[in-house]
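User: Quick one: structure for sequence A, then sequence B.

Assistant: Sequence A:
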Amino acid sequence: MRRGQVLSEGTEAAHHANQEDPTYIVDHVMHHVQDSNYISFFDWKLNLPHLELFGFDLSITKHVVMMWIVAVLLILVFSKLAKKKGLTPTGAFSNFFEVFIVFIRDDMVYNIMGEKLGRRFMPFFLTQFFFILTCNLLGLVPFCATATGNIAVTGALAIITLLVTQIGGMLEQGFFTYLKNIVPPGIPAWLLPIMVPVEILGQFTKPFALTVRLFANMTAGHLVILSLFALIFIFKSFGDVVSYAVAPGVVGFVLFISLLEIFVALIQAYIFTFLSIIFIGAALHPEH
C-alpha cells in the first residue's frame, strides 16, 4: 500500500472520529455561515478562482456567486414583467410582484418623499428591496448561502445608501446649502462646536446601523438552525437512544425557526429599504 493511501485513510478515519466532538460540530456550523472560496454539494466541490489586482484580493467567493445568481434572477423576472402590455397586470406572476411594488411605491416612497421626488428614486429602492429580499431567501435554499450574512455585503449596500443620500441632497439643494443644512437652523452659536461634529458623525452612524442590523439578523437565524441540528450529534455522546429521542423535538424547532426565517427575510428587506427612504428623504427635504 502506498504511503499516500495510508495518510489518506488515516485522515479520513480521524475526520469521522472527530464528527462526534463538539468542537468539530461548532467549526462545521461556522463553515456553513462564513464565506468560502469554494462551492460544495455533498461530496462534490468546486474551487473558485483566486484573483488579485494591485495587492487587493478580488477573489470570487461563495457569497459573490450567490449575488450573481440573485442579479440574474432579478434581471430575468423584471425583464419579463417589463414586457407586459398595458397598465393592468394580468396573471398570477404579475399580480404577485405588483403587491410588493405598489406597497413600496405608495406606502413607503411616495408617503415619505412625495410623488415627484419619489418617482425619481423608485428604481433604486425597488432594486434595493428585491435584491436584499432575494439574497435573504436564497440563503434558506439547501446548499446555497446568505450573501447578506456577510458584513462586507451589508456594508457595501449601506455605503451605496450613504452615497445616494449625500449626492442626492447636494443635487437637490446645492452643495453649500446642503452642507449648511446638515446642522438644523436656529441652533445657538455656542452649540455649533458640539453640534457640527455630532451631525457629521451622524451621517456615518446611520449606514453603520443599516450594516449591523441586516448582517446580525441574517446570521443569527442560520446560527440558531445549525446549532439546533448540532444538538442531535452532541447528545449522541450519551448514546444513540438519547440522540433519537432528541431528534424529533429538534426537527420541530428547526421547522419553526425556518418558517420564522422567511418572515425575517421579508422584514429585514423592508426595514433596510424603509430606513434608506427616510435617510434619503431627509437629505432632500431638510425642512422636515
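Sequence B:
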Amino acid sequence: MSFTFHEGERAVQRRAEGFDVADRIAAHITPEISPPIAAFVADQPFVVLAARDRAGRVWATLLHGAPGFARAADAETLVIDAPFAPGDPLGDALIGAPADVGLLAIEPATRQRVRLNGSAISDGRRTVVRTREVYGNCPKYISARTVIGAGSPGSPGSGEPEPGPAPAPVTDALDAAQQALVARTDTLFVATAHPAHGADASHRGGDAGFVTVADARHLSFPDYAGNTMYMTLGNLTADPRAGLLVPDFERGDLLLVSGEATIDWSPERAASMPGAQRVVDVAVDRVVQLPGALPLRWTPAQRSRFTPPAPAPAVPVG
C-alpha cells in the first residue's frame, strides 16, 4: 500500500507551499524495514515511542536496552524487548489490544534518525510493532553527543533494573526545577497522533533555550525549516493533543508532558525566534517525571551547524 498524506498534512503543506518537495520525499516511505534501517535500529540503546494513553492523552516516552533490544523480526515487524519504567503513563496503553504508535530511533553521535510508525501490542516487557511507515530523516538540528557510560539505577540491557527513586507524582503544571530543565534543553521529542492515520514521534532540537517557558503551564518552541512533509504540524492541525519528552542527559531523568498545541503562523511571532518559520505553543495538562529512567550518560552536546541561535529569555524561569 502506497503512502498518502492525510488532510491535516495537506492543509499545512498548502499553507507553507511545500507540496512538490513533500511528494518527492514521500515516495520513499514504505511499510518495510530495509536491511540498512534494521541494522541501524539494532545498534541503538534507546528508542522514543509515541502513543495515546487510555484516557486519550498523547505522550512521548523512551524505551532502552543493550543494542539489539529493538530488532526487526521480519520486513514489517519490530520487536522491542524492554519494560516501561514504573509510573510511565504509556505503561499499560498497549496491553491487551493493538494501538497506534510512532517510533523514533536516533543516534545523536552521528545525527542519524529513522521513524517507524504503525500499530503495537505489548505484554509490559515486550512490544511488537507492525510497521506502516518507515523512513529516514535529515540530520538537521540534532545536538551530537556520545554515550560515556551508565549511571544508576540499573544499566542498559542488564536484566531487571535496580530499584530507583519513586516516580514523581502526576501534576498539572511544571514545578521550578522542571521549568529549568525545559528552559536549558537542546533536545525535545514530540508525540502527535491523527484519529485515523496513527501516531508519530519526532525530534526538535536547537541551542539551549530554544524552548521558551512562559509559565508553569505554557511552553513554546520554534518550527524550523525541515523536510516539508509537516507530519507533526499536520497531526496537530487534525488533533491538537501532543506529548513532549525532555531527557536530562546528565542525570538520566525523563520529563514527560502532555497537553494541547496550537500553531502560530504570524510572521511577527516567528521573527521573535531566530530561524523560526512558525511557533508551536503548548498548554500543559499533565506532567510526569521519571527519575533515573534513562541509565545512559552522555558527553556534552556539540551543536549542529544548522541550528539557529536561541532567543534571549523574556521571562525568568522559576
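The longest helix spans residues 7-16. The chain has one domain: 7-298.

User: Thanks, that's what I needed.
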